[in-house]
Amino acid sequence: MALQTPSLTFQVRRNPPELVTPANPTPKELKLLSDIDDQTSLRCHISLVAFYRHDPSMKGKDPVEVIRQALSKTLVFYYPFAGRLREGPNGKLMVDCNGEGVMFIEADADVTLDKFGVDFHPPIPCLDQLLYNVPGSDGVINCPILLIQVTRLQCGGFIFALRLNHSMSDAIGLSQFMNGMADIARGAQKPSILPVWHRELLCARDPPRITCIHHEYQKPQHDNNNDNFILQHRSFFFGPKEFAAIHRLLPNHHSKSSTSDILTAFLWRCRTIALQPENPNHEFRLLYVVNARYGRCSFNPPLPEGFYGNAFVSPAAITTVEKLCSNPLEYALGLMKKAKNEGTEEYVHSVADLMVIKGRPSYFYNDIGYLEVSDLTKAGFKDVDFGWGKALYSGGTQGFLSTFMYVPYTNSKGVEGILVLSCLPIKVMDRFEKELNDILKTKDESQILWSRM
Questions:
Q1: CA-CA distance, 44 to 46, in Å (whole number)?
Q2: Which of 19, 50, 51, 180 is deepest in the core (most CB within 10 A)?
Q3: How far is CA 6 from the centre of its chain?
Q4: Buried b (16+ CB within 10 A) or exposed e, 21-35
Q5: Nearest by Cα to 402 from 231, 163, 228
Q6: Are residues 137 and 272 in the same domain?
Q7: So which domain of life are we looking at (predicted)?
Q8: Which of residues 169, 202, 235 is at a domain's end?
Q9: Same domain? 194 vs 226
Q10: 419 in a domain, yes or no?
Q11: What is the reported pLDDT for 61?
């Protein structure tokens, strides 16, 4: 379940940040982002960290130099990443493909991989030193779109960390870029999957028309009393044993429900109980990220292979605290699956149209009654191999107050499962962990009473 992060401090010596530019001349042009890309909720940064062991077969090769050169060559294909975002009329975002470059930091740390413990996972000790926020670099407009830091370790391993302007790409698009860079780092002349722009496929229709109900952009109807608390980050591991315990809480006809769906319903319910809302009639929402590249949400014809823009929407399930917590887990699962099934091609087009008609409304991420689940188990970050083998951990750096992030994970015992990155107020986090442990130890959900709220 909850994984322990070692108490660890170390020193990182960084070279001055530099701008890595495309290895060859690239087009100088303006490229419009889609209306899915430039929504307000995505005008932020997302980050990733990956741990790599020393590989004796790579003796004499410097990971910093290998990755820096691969980055420069990859930017020839992904040249918009070397540009800067500009804001046009009505706040429309576009990329100024000027070749200015990606910010790159070379660093060394006086620590070895074994000091991080046997299981590598967030929260990451000294993360602010492994992914340094260069002053003036973290804006959305007129700033580097990508920042990459490669930190050598004393054992010969290294840590790769990255920060991306979310307006440019979603997790799958970022993974495609990283795997392309890894292809070139291992000697390829070009990425195995060539990038495709075609952001117009996710722009609003003419005329725009909202054809679906979008609860995710509606403010929850409850008092927001989540001010003045200290947040804590924690990672939870769910393997076969934990999944079997959760399945026991459901009738047999749910045996074909996906692991991710069942886990999401379970966590939504446990989190709500741990929050101890004062009013049982308060409205809580679950946003489930679905991607237009595959599944029920996929386009016809499909989005082209190599598309690396944002291509996801987050349909919302809504219920009251009392209904969510007093009903069996099957109730939460039904709500979640219904919301997920609303994520169709038409839903994506309706979101794009809503952005234009309503002036890019945002999610209410600062609201404790909001929970967005982002399942990155199929994003492909675990496959990124710069020549030193696959990472011991590759994924998000931490959870967020209104988000659970799922990362594929194999622990030090070789058990495969899902790592859940979470963030909650400290007291709520303790109750959340206790709730998880208590429920997973019982075979009869009727023992979990509403009176515990």
A1: 7
A2: 180
A3: 23
A4: bbeeebeeeeebbbb
A5: 231
A6: no
A7: Eukaryota
A8: 202
A9: no
A10: yes
A11: 97
